[in-house]
Design a protein that fits this description.
Layout: E1 3-6, H1 20-36, H2 41-60, H3 67-87, H4 92-96, E2 99-101, E3 104-106, H5 109-112, H6 119-137, E4 143-148, H7 158-167, E5 175-181, H8 184-197, E6 203-208, E7 220-224, H9 237-244, E8 248-255, E9 258-266, H10 268-272, H11 289-294, E10 296-304, H12 306-311, E11 315-316, E12 322-330, E13 342-352, E14 355-357, E15 368-370, E16 373-375, E17 387-389, E18 394-400, E19 406-411
This protein binds S-adenosylmethionine.
S-adenosylmethionine binds next to β3 and β5.
Length: 412
């Protein structure tokens, strides 16, 4: 690795009593993981690297791979990555502290560690990133990739880099990666994992910094970002992307190339229960056609890509809260059972070229019911956070850039 750097952090407050149970569990997981590992360091690194390479070989394959085979490969990658995390010897605070920053939720490494098992999210991203890198390297001898909010395992890039190293598809002279995360525990874990994977040559820097403030010194060819939760809520994807997009070269790419956030009115039982009764796992390819037809699509609420990010205008409200105006939607007026439906927000993530993470492929693209938005019906105990509209009304959506990012709506 070329260098590590770390910015001084504000004093952190930890140790809330409610995390006690969580703590016992995580310490046990760490200990078990160490016990399992009776291997020498060299042997442990070899099996770790192999699990990453094997998984990417499956992910990048152009022939269909069985769901179970993928799940097992990702599970193995997770098991070995957790051993590295255990060896990083995070303190309880570094492992479990989770808090809300001004731009969104900062998840603890303990909770983030599972994202390396999110099969179809990583598949959609890794296949897209691979094509983007290949495409860029046709026209230049080396590229710089920035991956902010990468978490303790940087799972959208480290497995790919392991694969490149083994296959010699792209060398460390061609691909330079900057990993950024604000959580000290994620940084320690990343340092250990990069060392264990022997990827130091590909990793230019690991930086401990808030991605909404971070200024890279180099211009960036590819910005890889995934700090989203379902319904495009909670985490700071938009604030991070909006800030970092300015460091992309003119022809630089943001991955995902586009996130389309849409709204729909559904019968909850059909959408979230009945349609999954006869399938083994939920995925965009196992969606039930008649459940799809039963939806009332409201249309796109927001589209996030390089061009919309560069043109986004912030509105500052009286109390200093910043919002981004999103789309206006006119509610359909010919739906008989509108008052029985619930509002849900879902995303389609186009990572690069034809690669994507579709609805239900991952927890992040799972439609999110919003029980504060009503059409043609008033909740019995109406609260000030509830929004009530009628069929035919036009609704203006906004996205609030606060510690709890998400959509708010207003009648036009
Ligand atoms: C869900 S985890 C990792 C997600 C990761 N991108 C992936 O693909 O699996 C979220 C991580 O984002 C980091 N994060 C969230 N907001 C951040 C910010 N504003 N700046 C830097 N890191 C941030 C958290 O510290 C946490 O480690």
């Amino acid at each position: 690795m070329k260098t590590y750097s770390s910015h001084p952090k504000a004093c952190l407050e930890y140790a809330e009593p409610h995390i006690d149970e969580l703590l016992k569990h995580s310490i046990r997981t760490q200990l078990e993981s160490l016990l399992k590992s009776k291997l020498t360091t060299e042997q442990r690194q070899q099996v770790l690297q192999k699990s990453f390479i094997d998984t990417m070989t499956l992910v990048l394959s152009n022939t269909q791979v069985e769901h179970l085979q993928l799940v097992n490969a990702f599970e193995s990658m997770y098991d070995h990555a957790v051993q590295s995390m255990a060896l990083a010897q995070l303190s309880q605070e570094q492992l479990t502290r989770q808090y809300v920053s001004t731009s969104g939720l900062i998840m603890s490494p303990h909770n983030c560690k599972h994202t390396i098992k999110d099969v179809y999210r990583i598949q959609g991203y890794a296949r897209g990133i691979d094509q983007a890198i290949e495409s860029k390297l046709k026209h230049s001898s080396s590229i710089t990739i920035l991956y902010p909010a990468c978490g303790p395992f940087a799972p959208l890039l480290l497995p790919l880099l392991s694969y490149y190293k083994e296959s010699t598809k792209f060398t460390s002279k061609q691909v330079n990666v900057i990993l950024v995360d604000v959580h000290p525990g994620a940084i320690l874990s990343l340092q250990q994992l990069v060392k264990d994977l022997q990827l130091d040559d590909y990793v230019l820097r690991i930086e401990e910094a808030d991605a909404t403030q971070y200024h890279p010194t180099e211009s960036i060819d590819i910005l890889v970002l995934e700090a989203m939760q379902h319904g495009f809520t909670k985490e700071g994807q938009l604030s991070i992307a909006k800030h970092l997009v300015q460091f992309l070269t003119i022809d630089g790419w943001m991955i995902p190339q586009n996130v389309s956030v849409k709204g729909m009115m559904v019968i909850g039982e059909t959408e979230f229960n009945q349609q999954w009764k006869d399938v083994d796992y939920s995925h965009s390819i196992t969606i039930n056609k008649s459940a799809q037809q039963d939806r009332v699509e409201l249309g796109e609420i927001l589209s996030i890509n390089k061009s919309t990010l560069l043109n986004m205008q912030e509105l500052e409200l009286q109390d200093g809260v910043k919002v981004i105006p999103a789309n206006q939607i006119t509610l359909p007026s010919d739906i008989q059972d509108m008052n029985k439906r619930i509002f849900a927000i879902y995303m389609h993530i186009n990572t690069f070229a034809d690669e994507s993470v579709g609805q239900y492929d991952s927890g992040i693209t799972h439609p999110r019911p919003d029980m504060t938005f009503y059409i043609d019906v008033k909740p019995r105990d109406i609260e000030h956070t509830h929004f009530v509209a009628n069929s035919g009304d036009t609704v203006q959506f906004y996205y609030q850039l606060t510690g709890l990012p998400g959509f708010i709506s207003a009648k036009v």
